[in-house]
Design brief:
The structure is a single chain. The protein has 334 residues and is an all-alpha fold. It has a single domain, classed as Ribonucleotide Reductase, subunit A. Helix content is 64%, strand content 0%. The chain has ten helices and no strands. The chain is globular. The two termini are 20 Å apart. The structure holds fe (ii) ion (2 copies).
Length: 334
């Protein structure tokens, strides 16, 4: 990872005490405060709509497939923001920042819980304890297992990055995946045909909008003190974010993901079946369009901080050309 040596820093004094109740970041405080008013309970939603009897076996598996694919990214959010919340407290960052990171962690748990509940209704024991009954099911399970196995490399890299990158850089990089998260749920709340999904995606979108406001506030607070080189690291992290999210929001990018050669073919098959069942999964063209529009919407805000947007030709996004090397550490989140 570039900057590895130049960013070497003295050992940090990490302790959660004495703590503080200082509010310096007003935007962050507002986002955190809103999390109380926007609290929601997935247990009250009409999960019976996902009763097994309402679907054929392909429709059930395909929906469970997509939900368990989403869960990989929700889990990465739980880990990244949970770790970030502890680190922010150890670094004595301002109070709402610490609390907002904890609040985002809780939200990502709630999103993962939505995935778990959907799978439990559609296809009990999916994916961790499921025995496939057909080739279709075996292909779906193989993809999910490959993704989860490879997820281990993401987490190892994420943890290692805190040893050699300044924490401000890592915190500042949290925003990009939230653009992606807000984009996909905002689109799917409109494309899904089942009430249960419309309701959950509407609530998740609201959470993600809050996450985006908060992580942009975090970026803004950090970027003020960044050197040009550090700003370029953020550009690089945005590109890494695109690569990390690619199995969900595009097609898997081999710069990071080591997945089976026919992963995308199987993925497409599953996503099509899930779409037909009413889940509202986007087509590749829709993903590209919404992803690009979401980045363009944020471009001026990012550029005003002196941070360049990376070129992402896959989406038609123009910007700074950044080559992400094979196996480069990905220190972004969802
Ligand atoms: Fe989430
Ligand atoms: Fe999020």
């Amino acid at each position: 990872m570039p900057g590895k040596d130049k960013n070497k820093r003295p050992k940090l004094d990490l302790n959660i005490f004495p703590g503080n109740w200082t509010v310096t970041n007003q935007q962050m405080f507002k986002a955190f405060d809103l999390s109380f008013a926007q609290n929601w309970n997935p247990a009250t939603f009409p999960w019976d709509e996902l009763d097994q009897k309402n679907f054929d076996s392909k429709e059930r598996i395909a929906q469970a497939y997509w939900m368990s694919k989403l869960a990989l990214f929700e889990k990465s959010g739980i880990g990244a923001f949970g770790f970030g919340a502890v680190r922010a407290a150890e670094l004595n960052m301002d109070d709402p920042t610490k609390k907002m990171l904890a609040s985002i962690t809780y939200d990502e748990c709630r999103h993962d819980e939505v995935c778990r509940r959907a799978c439990d209704k559609l296809c009990p024991n999916w994916p961790y304890g499921y025995k496939p009954q057909s080739d279709f099911e075996a292909r779906a399970l193989r993809n999910i297992q490959a993704l989860y196995d490879d997820g281990r490399r993401y987490w190892e890299g994420f943890l290692k990055a805190w040893e050699y990158l300044p924490p401000e850089i890592l915190f500042a990089g949290f925003f990009f995946a939230e653009i992606g998260a807000e984009t996909i749920f905002n689109a799917m709340r409109q494309t899904s045909k089942l009430g249960i999904y419309q309701q959950t995606f509407r609530n998740i979108t609201r959470d993600e909008t809050r996450h985006l406001v908060a992580t942009m506030a975090l970026l803004r607070a950090m970027a003020e003190k960044f050197t040009e080189e550090q700003k370029l690291t953020i550009t690089r992290q945005m590109k890494q974010g695109f690569i990390f999210l690619s199995p969900l929001l595009y097609q898997h990018k081999p710069e990071f993901w080591h997945l089976p050669a026919d992963f995308d073919k199987v993925d497409q098959e599953m996503e099509e079946a899930a779409r037909d069942a009413g889940l509202g999964v986007l087509t590749l063209e829709e993903k590209v369009k919404f992803w690009r529009e979401a980045i363009e919407k944020k471009r001026s805000e990012i550029e005003e901080m002196g941070i360049k947007v990376p070129a992402i030709p896959e989406l038609g996004v123009e910007g700074e050309v950044v080559q992400v090397k094979k196996n480069e550490t990905i220190a972004t989140s969802f």
